[in-house]
Every structure is written in C-alpha cells, then in structure tokens.
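Student: I would love a firmer grasp of how sequence relates to backbone shape in proteins. I am handing you a single protein, as its sequence and its fold in token form. I am told such tokens are a discrete way to write the fold. I hope you can help me see how the letters and the tokens relate. Take your time, and here it is.
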Amino acid sequence: MTDDADDRTDEASDEDVRVLVVDDDPDIARFVEVNLQGDGYIVDIAADGEQGLESALEHPPDLALVDVMMPGMDGFQLVERLRGDPRTAGISIIMLTAKSLTADKVLGLTAGADDYIIKPFDPVELLARVKGTLRRAEEMRASSPLTGLPGNIRIQEEIARAVTSGKPFALVYADLDNFKAYNDFYGFLRGDAAIKTASGILQEEARRAAGDAAFVGHMGGDDFVLMVPPEKVEEVCHGIIKRFDEATAEMYDEDDHVRGYIEIRSRRGELQRFPLLSISLGVATTERRTFSHREEAVAIATEMKNYAKRSEGSSWAIDRRSVRR
C-alpha cells in the first residue's frame, strides 16, 4: 500500500490548485486569469495548443481551460494529446467555445473534455464550472471507478482516524494471487469481473460479521483493505476465503477449473503453469499492540499479507506479537 499523500485530511485550498488557460485571444485569457487569481488559483497562460501542451508537461495543472478554435493545434487536438499522455491524462479539462452547436459540445466531450463553457461567460459561471469540475475530479479520486469502493484517499483517512481515536480495530490487507496471469490469459474484461466478484465477497462478509462497523476500500488493481473490530476479524477472514474459493468455479472455463491451472507461454517461449486464483489476507490488530501512526498498521498488515502468500491457495495470517510501549 503506497502512501504518497501527507497527513492532511482537509480538502485542498484553492491556493494549491493550478489552472492552465489556453486561448489565442489575449483579452479572454487575461479575463479568465484575473478572475481565477482573484479566487486564489495559480494560473498559467498559453497562447496556442503547442504552448499549452508544453506548459502542461512542464507544470502539470489540476485543470485546463482550453479554447476550441486556435491556429495550429486546435482545442480538440490538444485535449486528445493531453488525454493520450500518461503524464497529463488525469488533468480535468473544460473547453471554451464561441459556438453553441451541439456538435461542438459532443466533439469536445468525445475528445476527453469534462465540461464546456460557451463564450461569452461571466465570472460567476466561470468559477462555478471550475469548482464543480474540480470537485467531481476529487470525488473520483476518492473512490474506485471499477468497484465503487472508497479509494486510497479515503482508506488513508479511515486508518488515520482509527489510529487517532484509540478504538480497537483490525486492518486486513487483501490481495489476489496469480491475478496477472489470469488477466493475461482471459483478458481484462474477465479480469475486471474477477475483481468485482472479490469486491462483492469482501463487502458482504465484512458487513455480515461487523455491520456498520465494517469499512472496505479498494486501493486499485487486485488490492483491497478492510477494517473490522478485532473480535470479528477471524470470522471475516474465514468467510472471505470460503466464499472466494467457491467463486473461482465461475471465473474459469470448466476445463481450466477442473484441471486446476492455466498455461501461459513466457516471452522466452516457455510454457508456464499458474494455479487458480486465490486470495491472501494479512491482518494487523490492536488486540496486543497499539499504533502511533497509520503507517505502522499498514506495514504490519503488509508483512502478514506477504507471509500468507507463501502458502499455496487462499490463506490468511494475523499478527499476534505483543509490543509494550
């Protein structure tokens, strides 16, 4: 579990947000700049698509306001370039257009824009669209688009809150074994379906045992986090493993499931066997120790997960070491 964010859980202020304005009309660019700066945003200006692309790569913004009609690289082309580069793919984009034709709106959204504003616009509308687009982007980052579960930001907040409160908790790190081979063999659609199946099992078992006291988050890929009361964690782990192993019959073609493995040819041309999907669970708990920071709990859960993965098939491992402070 990576932890690149700092300990703040408060929403970022406007002063932390960088906006790139790409428009070949200096009067409009200046108008937008003044109003955004007046509301506390950091603003960069580019006079055309090429400059806009260079600026976005050099100083990645949180949001770009892109004019549709520009000489050379137009707004549609710029949006496609931004979306096509991993360094800028996550930028929020609002298109500025002097046309109200539905076709232009559709083209902008198809190219990858999040919203559009029709010129002329007033400062109130401009700021409302900017705030709304940034808010939606933040909400998307806080949850997994595949499973709908809370994402890394919420996970970090929940662990930090549990540690700070001093209330007993058990942190479970869940990871699918042999998932990459499965995904390569059957394709990403069935890979996504397997992750959704795992997500459903984790949620159902955690909430069946712990009710509203359960928290389930999706870090991305095939990694999940659960938080339940310590006295419920063994019941939850047993339930998850039983349900997941039963569900593998639906994830595989019948012949592969009966055989108990799939075969994939390596880059060297060697045929390799991979067992059926299984799930490994690592548990950190306050039952015999306390944590002063969320990173401690995460480190223990990760250690236990790695230990569980040494066993064949689905397995779980709980940290039972006592630490006196």
The chain has two domains: 14-141, 152-318.
